[in-house]
Amino acid sequence: xxxxxxxxxxxxxxxxxxxxxxxxxxxxxxxxxxxxxxxxxxxxxxxxxxxxxxxxxxxxxxxxxxxxxxxxxxxxxxxxxxxxxxxxxxxxxxxxxxxxxxxxxxxxxxxxxxxxxxxxxxxxxxxxxxxxxxxxxxxxxxxxxxxxxxxxxxxxxxxxxxxxxxxxxxxxxxxxxxxxxxxxxxxxxxxxxxxxxxxxxxxxxxxxxxxxxxxxxxxxxxxxxxxxxxxxxxxxxxxxxxxxxxxxxxxxxxxxxxxxxxxxxxxxxxxxxxxxxxxxxxxxxxxxxxxxxxxxxxxxxxxxxxxxxxxxxxxxxxxxxxxxxxxxxxxxxxxxxxxxxxxxxxxxxxxxxxxxxxxxxxxxxxxxxxxxxxxxxxxxxxxxxxxxxxxxxxxxxxxxxxxxxxxxxxxxxxxxxxxxxxxxxxxxxxxxxxxxxxxxxxxxxxxxxxxxxxxxxxxxxxxxxxxxxxxxxxxxxxxxxxxxxxxxxxxxxxxxxxxxxxxxxxxxxxxxxxxxxxxxxxxxxxxxxxxxxxxxxxxxxxxxxxxxxxxxxxxxxxxxxxxxxxxxxxxxxxxxxxxxxxxxxxxxxxxxxxxxxxxxxxxxxxxxxxxxxxxxxxxxxxxxxxxxxxxxxxxxxxxxxxxxxxxxxxxxxxxxxxxxxxxxxxxxxxxxxxxxxxxxxxxxxxxxxxxxxxxxxxxxxxxxxxxxxxxxxxxxxxxxxxxxxxxxxxxxxxxxxx
Length: 738
What we know:
Helix content is 51%, strand content 18%. It is an alpha+beta fold and 738 residues long.
């Protein structure tokens, strides 16, 4: 059986979508590589490979052979970050100096073209711009040519090189093409300006692309650099976060960020968890409560025991998942990849045909017009805009989701979410809190202090989930529990216990009957009223007397009803599935406004229910939190996990709601709609730009206007097309999700 292993690697040296395609194709050709996918905007390649056959070093060699590079280890990645920063500074310097040299060339070429030695002055000033500041285009183009490939650098090198060489020939041999001295056609200013515009476009594009990954930087910035370590003898020492180990005790002071996932051992406070869950209100936390790395301690000081550190924390998990999701491709990208694969060769072919057509049909001005058309076509064509259209929108969208507590697993989930018309909700842990709590404790005796102690002692011995709920409830009563003489658990009924020769019973009506404790009509009515509200009823009694009636319920989350109403108003059909009984299911459905529900379902029956909806043509999202939901979630078009649920549910899910608030599902759908709309806008403008721009550059309007497109204008248009696409994606940051 073939081993498969996924890993992301940074890629350097790419300048357009065609470069990304070249890296993908080279890696896919390698023995042992099952698949490779490049995200041009993120400069990341995800490789699916068999580590027993091929290693990352082999990837590096393969990609280096076509002029790019892959970063294969952490030290190299850190070095690469320094290189990228240095290259950014160099790019800025190249843009400034090339612009300073180009400015007089443009002034001479446009205004003072008749001054003595004008062409020679422009030759001297433009040459370093083209072949020194623009040398990377020629080096990369030559590297592509050696391997029979072409990219944007090829277009730039061909266009500026041809324009420069033609100008030199006309300057050195002014009569060669029949021109009079001083009136020969030269394009030194066009060659130089094109280089300047493209360098400026790259500079703006790099800055804009850096902003698309700002969500990751924000998440990483949530981790403090140092922490306060509490030793066994109580002394406190400030140490770097990287030195923290599992089970260490850490002091978190007011205003500090919590450094690791852990459990509070000493102290209480309010914690701002908005960075993780998206919930704006601070929540109270005390001994026994879990806290998470990246959240902020508001007021009190407390000591936590480290349970997850480093990349194992919830924050580390979110950062890793966001990175993976931002590097993934939605299905719409497949069309773009196909276009990018043939884009540059087609553009070169069109430019050559334009040259031939003008040479044949252009008459006396055939050569200059042919040259202008060929250079303009090569320059105006922009594969970058196509390559950036989808990934930049995906990166910003997924990053925005992470900031609002919506963890999106891949771009496919992001793309599919806007199509959802049917939402299927698991009950327990999704609509409800997922743990039973005591909602009613109705005492029938005036002074229950001794009985409270007895109840506390009995439930402390029980392992039933309902006993846990009663134990949590009784913690508020600061009373010592009594010692039991005898304890017996009766499955399906309750528990029996003897204290000082008195036999107590806690359980359902059957337990009371079997213990000889008769329920009055009033007791039965109270129990019936509680059951109508989807509560489990327990009786506590002894010696043929009922002391208390206790109502225990898995409470509906405070946000559920409003969230479901919002989804319904958005045109989404809501269904609820549960393995619980009909009585409870009906009560929860009634309280939350759900008209479609099924109770008593097994995991495979939930999956069958999803399939039945899909056969009706529905686009179904399944929301759950447990192992029993994972089968149905796997079969849904979009699977959504609640953040406090089982790991398997989150592994299956395409989205995870970290806060477990159903209201975030509406936000996720809104995010998907805006992201897909932005992708479509980007692709429309990228395609339209090239569809309109290339014919204009070829000279189709010359018969009507008498003018050819100036290559300088073409260069400016090409540079700004990429920047406009990225800028449009960045508008997603301002979308209101709540």
